[in-house]
Records
---
Amino acid sequence: MLRPGRLHAIVAFALLTVGGSAAQGASGANLEVLQLRPNFYMIAGAGGNIGFQVGVDGVVVVDSGTTASADAVVAAIKKVTTQPIRYVINTSADADHVGGNAKVAKAGQTLFTGNGGVGLATNFLGGGASILSAEQVLTRMSGPSGKPSPFPLEAWPTETFGEPRKYMYLNGEGIEIFHEPAAHTDGDAMVFFRRSDVVVAGDVFDTRTFPVIDVAKGGSIDGEIAALQKLVDTAIPSVPIVSREEGTLIVPGHGRICDQLDVVDYRDMVTIIRDRVRDLMKQGLTLEQIQAASPARGYTRRYGSDTGSWTTNNFVEAIYRSMNKKPQ
Ligand SMILES: [Zn+2]
């Protein structure tokens, strides 16, 4: 998390609380819009954090929040700019990150005039914005064939990629999308806006809790640590003049804006707990015995929980199961 002084400075000049009629959708969502850079904004309060870049080419949005917040998200973007939304990039297939896809894309306009891509035509959605993700996100959102899809067709990605690094150049800056193949899930993407110097990290980084590792959806502890390391390697802190408190900004999947040192701390925490679980596994302890040994001690007050959808025991179990999956 940013040092208090810095966060205060950002909030002081850039917090546009979007209250009132325009941004309140059916959900009554009360969103916060933070201007992080001259042409880069973050929306909090719509599920997962949303980032968006604005420029002459239009708007590039990373994640779309929950379905219930979608109208409010569109209103918040339109309050900042009259430029059309061109891209929605998804960081995973989680409902709090892709739920608004259909509405946000429909509110936009494709960059392409004809059918330009493989798979679904780019004039799909009547010429709305493209929805871009790793291939695995489309697989998750469409579901196995012969069964009802978890998400409606209009919310699915219209463009997918399989390479580790996908890139675009829009609004005068390079945009790099890093696919992390086995971290929070198998379809995680982290989106780096190179000139704005902002990374939208998705749920590989969650400042409120231990990272959510969904082993059933291809997540793993080692892939999670690799993704955090990639974030550390991508970001640059304010050195050598540390008093300036500048540097790369990292938008986590949930929680406050961070800098490189915050990710270093988080990576170290996750690595220490992984190592403790691994040592206990080597001693032949069962999962229950390992959980009882509190391998997350020292971090539970800040990141842990005994209740809710992601408990400390869930995290320890995810480490155990993903390490057990590996060939011995
Ligand atoms: Zn999330």
Note: The longest helix spans residues 260-282.
---
Amino acid sequence: MKPANSVLSSYGTTVFEVMSRLAQEHGSINLGQGFPDGNGPDDVVTAASAYLHDGINQYPSMMGIPELREAVATHAKRFYDLDFDWPGEIMITSGGTEALASALFGLIEPGDEVVLIEPLYDCYLPIVRRAGGVPKLVRLEPPSWRLPRQALTDAFSDNTKLILFNSPMNPCAKVFTRDELEFIAALALKHDAYVVCDEVYEHLAFDGRPHIPMITLPGMRDLAVRVQSAGKIFSLTGWKIGMVSAAPELLTPIAKAHQFLTFTTPPNLQAAVAYGLGKDDAYFDALNGDMRARRDRLGAGLADIGFDVIPCEGTYFITTDFRPLGFNGTDEEFCRHITIEAGVTAVPVSAFYQGGGIDHFARFAFCKEDASLIEALRRLKAHFGS
Ligand SMILES: Cc1ncc(COP(=O)(O)O)c(C=O)c1O
């Protein structure tokens, strides 16, 4: 047999899949994978189901249904005072992941350098490499997750095609400040590089911290690509509706990639997301307040058991240092250990790094029912005997 594509074949099964399978095998509470419990907002789900019966069930427009593209523009104006001309600047994809893949395949030419910030969401590097990009990695490290400005400056060159980063950032729960975004924007401007910003957790920046879309910064309107996910906005991660917003010169090549990857996205779900984006402020406030309360519950409980809990500024995730519990193995060993012995699953933070060196942090997802969080904490407490 001839070998398959060497870049993609070099990757194993993702750590999320491995840990989820192990959790299932052992009847463990899965705080590893970041999908919310529950079934999302009732009215949004009802809108999707009504549209299945009454709407169009054939291929919708390649760029997305007009109602949703317009709703994305209205949402951007409402929350960030951004003006998008939706027919030329907004496209709907099958999830944030496809939005990112389309952006990377559409913009990267083989040999282009691509700056990435570790810890990395799992699909970034394989897609960049498959697109022929040459990754230049810069790492944030726990517990401060401080932006290493010199390393970032050094990672840029005249061969840099783009930087891809994520704010609020999975798994480290960092929300980039305006100052940090300005620093990145200045490098992008200096090197004439694009900025692909994964903003899927935009409504999950906590404690009054603003989420600032990169594209709102001076000079970034024509260089930045904004990526969103309805899965995170409506706690419906299985829907896989993503959105890309960018200047027409950027969106055009990105749309070419989308055209040949998935071409389009289920119209009933698009219609329901269009409806959902119009929900009142109370919905968005409750989403944020509810997740913040879960964060506080899980964070306080883990600290009480003896974990070092790193402050969480946004997303679904809390990172913890487990060494104070007396566990001396690696983070992978720790996550397997608590899955099998305590009945609670987390994921090792080392999985988000390429080069090693980070091996004693575990990530817990708090986007779960209170009952699951309470039971998970009870089990961990019983196991570690604190
Ligand atoms: C940082 C980040 N980007 C993108 C995605 C994928 O979004 P979607 O499910 O819409 O493809 C996720 C999902 O967990 C994520 O955490």
Note: Residues 34, 95-97, 121, 166, 170, 198, 200, 229, 231, 237, 240, 242 surround pyridoxal-5'-phosphate (CB under 6 Å).
